[in-house]
Specification:
- This is NAD kinase.
- Pfam families: NAD_kinase, NAD_kinase_C.
- It catalyses: NAD(+) + ATP = ADP + NADP(+) + H(+).
- Helix 1 runs parallel beside helix 4.
- The protein has two domains: 3-130, Rossmann fold (3-Layer(aba) Sandwich); 133-267, Tumour Suppressor Smad4, CATH 2.60.200.30.
- The protein is globular.
- The chain has seven helices and 20 strands.
- The chain is α+β, with helices and mostly antiparallel strands.
- Helix content is 21%, strand content 34%.
- The strands form four sheets. Strands 3-2-1-4-5-6 form a six-stranded parallel sheet, sandwiched between helices. A six-stranded antiparallel sheet has the order 9-8-19-16-11-12, with no helix packed on it. Strands 15-14-13-10-17-18 form a six-stranded antiparallel sheet, with no helix packed on it.
């Protein structure tokens, strides 16, 4: 087998976590033993001490995931969002191993690393697509910034002592004006992130929808809104507003917004592909990640009773 024919995995790890260093070293060794090359960004490989490790190759700056069948990320949701920037549009799915706290975007936990590598080697994973957002900012009709987001796009006040005045528009029609700390436009994937902290609903990832959530709005009509996936949203910073704003994409990429700026958000045609190792429902993930109290649920006991008696339960799921 030539070098060009060998399987390649892009490995992304939190560069300042000792735990990430230890696990990354273990993953590299296991994959190398299985005949799979590991591609890493040169500065990250140097920080983790893996530059000269057998089977580690430098990634190209322009397209780190080039030629890779999978992106494996070791870290929390922030590191996984960084991995999503490298995977989106390449066709390579993203597999996150949680080294953080909640890790909603992660598919595996740190203690599952052995079985996770086995899944990678055997290619025993499924792939699901997650909706992303396209965002464009205009000033006086001129585009000044464009980007995308997996979780959310936020327009926030830039000054703590100043309130931001924002007009929300849906499908070309004005909806309302909020005096607020900001506004979140989120995907179902992002419904458990910033939008959730701002009071938005949790939306199952297979639901196609956009969320519009004002942050600390001084208004009677300040409830979160769930909109259709093809809605065209626009947020305008009122020209005579008290404060200036900032546009953030996934909390990672930002640009300042002058008064009068117009931000347009639509569903993107390019999703992020996530690798899944299990078929457990989103409900189980929600319970585990938020440590929800399910004391008193007798679903399993009812199923066992029905199996024992040979009769279907008539008192719930």
């Amino acid at each position: 087998m030539t070098t060009a024919d060998r399987r390649r995995i892009l490995l992304v790890a939190h560069p300042r976590r000792q735990e990430a260093h230890d696990i990354a070293t273990d993953v590299v060794k296991r994959l190398h033993t299985a005949g799979i090359d590991v591609v890493m960004q040169p500065d990250e490989a140097a920080t983790l001490g893996l530059t000269d490790h057998p089977g580690v190759w430098p990634a190209t700056a322009k397209n780190p995931a080039e030629g890779c069948e999978l992106i494996c990320v070791l870290g929390g949701d922030g590191t996984i969002l960084r991995g999503a920037e490298m995977s989106r549009g390449t066709g390579a799915p993203l597999l996150g191993v949680n080294l953080g706290h909640v890790g909603f975007l992660a598919e595996a936990e740190r203690e599952d690393i052995s079985s996770t590598v086995e899944h990678i080697v055997a290619r025993t994973y499924t792939v699901e697509e997650r909706m992303t957002l396209e965002v464009t900012a205009h000033v006086d009709g001129t585009p000044v910034y464009s980007s995308w987001a997996l979780n959310e796009v936020t327009v926030e006040k830039a000054n703590r002592e100043r309130m931001l005045e924002v007009v929300a528009e849906v499908d070309g029609r004005p909806l309302t004006t909020w005096g607020c700390d900001g506004v979140v436009v989120a995907t179902p994937t992002g419904s458990t992130a910033y939008a959730f902290s701002a009071g938005g609903p949790v939306v199952w990832p297979d639901v196609e929808a956009l969320l519009l959530v004002p942050i600390s709005a001084h208004a009677l009509f300040a409830r979160p809104l769930v909109l259709g996936p093809h809605s065209h949203l626009a947020l305008e910073v009122v020209p005579d507003t008290l404060g200036t704003g900032a546009l953030w994409c996934d909390g990672r990429r930002a640009v300042d917004l002058p008064p009068g700026a117009r931000i347009q958000v639509v569903r993107s045609d390019t999703p992020v592909r996530l690798a899944r190792l299990s078929t457990s429902p989103f409900t189980d993930r929600l319970v585990a990640k938020f440590d929800l109290n399910i004391h008193g649920w007798r679903g399993q006991a009812r199923r066992e009773e029905a199996a024992r008696t040979g009769r279907a339960s008539t008192i719930g799921p």
